[in-house]
Structures are given as C-alpha cells and as structure tokens.
Amino acid sequence: MALKGNLRDFSITQLLNLINLARKTGTLTVERSSERADLCFREGKLVYASLGNQHNRLDQILLKAGRLTTEQTRLIQAQVNATDDKELGLWLINAGYVTQKDILQSVRQHMLEIVYQLFTWTDGKFRFEPNQLPPPERITVPIGLENVIIEGTRRMKEWEQLQDELPDLDMALRFTDRPGTSLRNISLSIEEWRVISFINPRNTIRQIAQATNMSEFQIRKIVYGMLQAGLVELVRPEGREVAPPSRGGERREAPLPPPAQRPPAVKRSVVMRLIDRIKQL
Amino acid sequence: MGKVQTVKMVVTGPFAAGKTQFIQTISEIEVVSTERKISSESERIKERTTVAMDFGRITVDEDLVLYLFGTPGQKRFDFMWEILSEGMLGFIVLIDSVRPETFREARNILDTFRAYAPTPYVVAANKQDMEDAWSVEDLRIALRIEDGVKVLPCVATDRESVKRVLLELLYSILERMDAEEAESE
C-alpha cells in the first residue's frame, strides 16, 4: 500500500528519514497547487528527481549548470532528435561537448536543488509508490540521504530567516544612487550577475527568478546579499498595484506576466534627453 | 517615489580592447566590475580582465538613467553575452586598432550581437592615439563593415572621444526611429 499524507502532518525531513532508514525503493510524488515534484529512490538512495515546472531535459540541465552555452543548446536541439537522455548524453560526450563527469555532476546538482527546494514546502500532498522507478531513458545518480537531510534542514532554517528579511517577492529592485566605495572590488558569482542584468524597477523579484530559472530560495539569498551590500534597494514595481507582503512563501494562483525581456519602445524624446545629457558631460 | 526609466547600452569587443576603460571614462559612478588577474599565458597582455561584466551609469535627470554594460572579452565567458544583450537600446563594438590578430574575433562578436538583437550599433576603433593604430578606413575594409554602419575613431581614456562615440550611437538610434516611423506611415 502506498504511503500517503500531507507535508503539514509529516514533513519532507521525516519522509526522507523514513525512506533512508527503511532502504525503500520507489517514487515519492509531492504536489502543491500547480507544482509537482517526483523523487525516485533505490534502496534508500535518491536516484532521480524532477520538478514539474522545470526543464528536466539533459541539455537544459547542462545549460543551467553552465556546461553548455545557449547557442550550443540551440545547435544540439537542431541536430539531435533524442528524447532519451542517455542517448543524448552519449552523443554529447562523443561530440566533445562535455565529459561523463560533467554530466553526472550536473545531474547530481540538479537533483539536489530540487530536493532542497522541497524542504521549503510546508504544505502539499504526498504519496510514495513502492518499486516505481524513473523511466529507463533517464540518467540516474545515486545520492545518500544522510547529508541531504542535514543540508536540507540547515537550508530550511536559512529559508525561514530569509523569508523574514525579504518577505515579498513581488517588490522590484533598483540600483542605489551611489554604491559604496567597497564595491570597487566586488566579487560576484555568475548567478548574481545574471540577476543584476535583470534589475529594473519594472521587474519584480519573482519575475527575475523566473527569467533566470532560479528557485525562491536562490533568488532570496542573492537579493538579500545585494541589499546588505548596498548595491540595490527595494522599490514598488512600476505600473502595478502591489499586494500586501505575504508570508510563508505562498504562491499566487494566477500566473504572473513574463518578465520584461526588453524595455518598452523608447520614445524619441528619451533619446533626445540622453543626447543632451551626454553633450553636457 | 517617482518612476525612473532606465535604458541600457552594451559595450562589447575582443579581449583587452578597452571596454572597461571606456565605461570608466564616462560613468558618473565608480564602475562596478569583476576584474581578475589573468590566469592564461596566452591572454597575459594585460594584468587584469573582466570575467563577468562591468556596469557604469549616467543619470540624465530624476526620472531617466542610462546604464552602460561592458561584456567580458575572454571567449570562455561568452555565455554572458546573450544575457547582457537583453533589452539593450544599442551597442558599441570596441576594436583594438593596434592588434590585427583580434579583428577576426571582433567581427565574430559583432555578428553574434547582431543576431541577439536588431538594435542599432556603431564600431569604435580604440587606441587611435597609438602610432601603430590602423585607420578607421582600413578597419572598415578589414572587418567588412557595411557602409551604413559608423566606424568611429576612439581613445577610451579621453572623455570627449567616448562622448562622441555614445552620441553617434544615439544619432543612429534616432535615424532608425525616423526610418521606422516613415515606413509605418
């Protein structure tokens, strides 16, 4: 009989602990509103993870991990008509795009990101189907659960703190008028630069997370760091009524519009003002 | 708090073409950059290079700000280019006029950015104050730049020179707007 319940009553930490101790084999599915996560286990080890609203294809995982560029991904999708990740992986190795080690590390990281994200879910229905394993075309990587549980619990505490510090992801960001001089030698990660390139009073933090394919935890952590460094400040998004701050990481039912990938058509008068200003410099 | 409109321009070009200097010369804020010591022997032309991007700012007034984003020059960071090109009003391709070995790469960068976004651009031939600098006319031929595209002399350490390049790009943007307006009528 399948294990069924709600995370409100039996947390993800408890579930993973049970699977680990009982050395279970099967698939744990967790669902909340429109989101769904599937974790597959073999003899108590995590071997595969997928999140319903994320791209789980191998080339997308490698793109996110920085092992492939956008251009390479486009070329690969045009050249290889493989829905089988193992077949695609072999092709990528033979074509010299990546090594086997790159693939295993990227898949492992992808799986861990999903499972750590689940630690932030405090509500959601779950069921465990014994002996159900991932489709054979998927790449599996065995990961012991002890360290996952320890790290997940640590992140859960960090998540709670970040939610207190930055409760509303529907706020926007803008660069501060005068960053501190210490920023001269600032050292930011690629992910942080990705966020910076989307900072604009029109883009909410949630939209930036969607555009950069980051989890709420990741975007909160990055934005909190930038706020602390005095690089950016929170502002109400332009042209939008902002709902009162919500707690507990609740998601809106209605999907938000896509992030502003391009600025709205710039008027001639704006260009003229830029010209006048540069002439004065 | 009033609405602030931000517009973005990108400064791109090969490794060591002077992109960081270009932005530093005109930015009103201290340029935020991620320069690091060069690790590769083949790229040890200068001591430090941009590994992600730079950005500088020019405030027009209380509700309009121009941001200048500089791209990393080293090829292994080219995955950042597409990210940086998002939403740009126009871009500048900076060329090192004294290093012909970088011209082919400059052409490739130009083609790549043109593919990312159909926005106006200009080519700025940097280091024109140096004795061995190729002339803008020769550079136009060497890089196969179309006649309609401006190739401008530039010295990235000279504020007036940088201003001229930015102004020429803005004039190109205006010309494009006029042409599009005429087409729609």
What count of structural domains of chain B? 1
Largest two-chain interface:
A-B, 44 and 44 residues
User: Count of helices of chain B?
Assistant: 5
Q: What global shape of chain B is seen?
A: globular
Note the gap between the termini of chain A: 75 Å
In total, the number of strands of chain B is 8
The CATH homologous superfamily name of chain B equals: P-loop containing nucleotide triphosphate hydrolases
- The whole-angstrom Rg of chain B is 16 Å
Reading the helices and strands of chain A in chain order gives: EHEEEHHHHEHEHHHEH
**CATH uppermost class of chain B:** Alpha Beta
Placed side by side, the strands forming the largest sheet of chain A appear as 1-5-2-3-4
Q: Which structural class is indicated by helix and strand composition of chain B?
A: alpha/beta
* Number of separate helices of chain A: 10
Q: Any idea how many domains of chain A? A: 2
**Oligomeric status:** heterodimer
Written overview of the protein:
The complex is a heterodimer of chains A (281) and B (185). Chain A is of the alpha+beta class and 281 residues long. Chain A has two domains: 3-157, no CATH class; 166-240 and 247-262, Orthogonal Bundle (Arc Repressor Mutant, subunit A), CATH 1.10.10. In chain A, 42% of the residues lie in helices and 14% in strands. Chain A has a five-stranded antiparallel sheet with strand order 1-5-2-3-4, with helices on one face. In chain A, strand 2 and strand 3 form a beta hairpin. Chain A starts with a strand and ends with a helix. In chain A, 28% of the residues are buried. With 185 residues, chain B is an alpha/beta fold. Chain B has one domain: P-loop containing nucleotide triphosphate hydrolases (Rossmann fold), CATH 3.40.50.300. Helix content of chain B is 34%, strand content 24%. Chain B contains five helices and eight strands. Chain B has a six-stranded mixed sheet, with helices on both faces. Chain B has a two-stranded antiparallel ribbon with strand order 2-3. The model of chain B is unreliable at 41-45 (pLDDT under 50). The interface between A and B is large, with 44 and 44 residues.
